[in-house]
Amino acid sequence: xxxxxxxxxxxxxxxxxxxxxxxxxxxxxxxxxxxxxxxxxxxxxxxxxxxxxxxxxxxxxxxxxx
Length: 66
What we know:
single chain, mainly alpha
């Protein structure tokens, strides 16, 4: 006795529709980030501090890998 079932044409249609919807939502070079800059600066200030006293967080420079 097997508990597996074959996936029918309805499954394939749903899979194709989901892939199509994902393709419509995708935009090259767009990063989906929501938030505000004040909160980001506050978090960076708490994480890295302000040793030089310029009022901006001292975020370390990290080159993009690749």
